[in-house]
């Protein structure tokens, strides 16, 4: 089973890129973040025509929003609200074989990494705390996959300069600590770093502000695929080649600033 996560930064604006990716890479399940539309405006017809007939959508007009599109049936669709904000940042569904997938878009946190002066940063920290509390309730036999734009680059070589980004939102020690609590709450396995350990650099996001993003390569690993302990063997069985950051998609015309990330589960 091939699962892909991608912050698409407006699914309607970039539906042609989505179709191109589906044709080229042929995932079984595609999880999108920042779809930026209500369910009624989601480009379902185009995805049906591409062979992805099953959809789980939590949409919001102009902001946020997440969706799971699949060639496989989706059951037990769940949309969880975090921090009582009314934001659409989570959707979950069960796949054949008993695998449950959670798709997240964690708040970016604004520019100032101080929860006392920046409400957006405080919201981000609260969101991560609530994630940890929720996933602490999952049982040890849970066959779960967590994907999405988590907006935290946790390790030193998940950013282009650890030293220069220690006080930049997405790589601050407090964010890394909070994300670590989410990991520990269920014993989640960060597949990327299990298969491709530090100190190898891994990036999934490159700013639009860079004149030549590829040449400067000032990236961050903000997009994640985690699996529960029960799926450790299927996730790691294929070795490093089972995990792919589709960096070429960042160079397509009018791209998202995030690259798609895929994992092949040996189920």
UniProtKB/TrEMBL annotation:
<keyword id="KW-0479">Metal-binding</keyword>
<feature type="binding site">
    <location>
        <position position="257"/>
    </location>
    <ligand>
        <name>Mg(2+)</name>
    </ligand>
</feature>
<dbReference type="GO" id="GO:0004519">
    <property type="term" value="F:endonuclease activity"/>
</dbReference>
<feature type="binding site">
    <location>
        <position position="258"/>
    </location>
    <ligand>
        <name>Mg(2+)</name>
    </ligand>
</feature>
<dbReference type="GO" id="GO:0046872">
    <property type="term" value="F:metal ion binding"/>
</dbReference>
<feature type="domain" description="Endonuclease/exonuclease/phosphatase">
    <location>
        <begin position="5"/>
        <end position="258"/>
    </location>
</feature>
<dbReference type="InterPro" id="IPR020847">
    <property type="entry name" value="AP_endonuclease_F1_BS"/>
</dbReference>
<feature type="active site" description="Proton acceptor">
    <location>
        <position position="258"/>
    </location>
</feature>
<keyword id="KW-0460">Magnesium</keyword>
<keyword id="KW-0464">Manganese</keyword>
<dbReference type="Pfam" id="PF03372">
    <property type="entry name" value="Exo_endo_phos"/>
</dbReference>
<dbReference type="InterPro" id="IPR036691">
    <property type="entry name" value="Endo/exonu/phosph_ase_sf"/>
</dbReference>
<dbReference type="InterPro" id="IPR037493">
    <property type="entry name" value="ExoIII-like"/>
</dbReference>
<dbReference type="GO" id="GO:0006281">
    <property type="term" value="P:DNA repair"/>
</dbReference>
<feature type="binding site">
    <location>
        <position position="7"/>
    </location>
    <ligand>
        <name>Mg(2+)</name>
    </ligand>
</feature>
<protein>
    <submittedName>
        <fullName>Exodeoxyribonuclease III</fullName>
    </submittedName>
</protein>
<feature type="active site">
    <location>
        <position position="105"/>
    </location>
</feature>
<dbReference type="GO" id="GO:0003677">
    <property type="term" value="F:DNA binding"/>
</dbReference>
<feature type="active site" description="Proton donor/acceptor">
    <location>
        <position position="149"/>
    </location>
</feature>
<dbReference type="InterPro" id="IPR004808">
    <property type="entry name" value="AP_endonuc_1"/>
</dbReference>
<feature type="binding site">
    <location>
        <position position="151"/>
    </location>
    <ligand>
        <name>Mg(2+)</name>
    </ligand>
</feature>
<feature type="site" description="Interaction with DNA substrate">
    <location>
        <position position="258"/>
    </location>
</feature>
<comment type="similarity">
    <text>Belongs to the DNA repair enzymes AP/ExoA family.</text>
</comment>
<feature type="site" description="Transition state stabilizer">
    <location>
        <position position="151"/>
    </location>
</feature>
<feature type="binding site">
    <location>
        <position position="34"/>
    </location>
    <ligand>
        <name>Mg(2+)</name>
    </ligand>
</feature>
<keyword id="KW-0378">Hydrolase</keyword>
<dbReference type="GO" id="GO:0008311">
    <property type="term" value="F:double-stranded DNA 3'-5' DNA exonuclease activity"/>
</dbReference>
<dbReference type="InterPro" id="IPR005135">
    <property type="entry name" value="Endo/exonuclease/phosphatase"/>
</dbReference>
<feature type="binding site">
    <location>
        <position position="149"/>
    </location>
    <ligand>
        <name>Mg(2+)</name>
    </ligand>
</feature>
<feature type="site" description="Important for catalytic activity">
    <location>
        <position position="223"/>
    </location>
</feature>
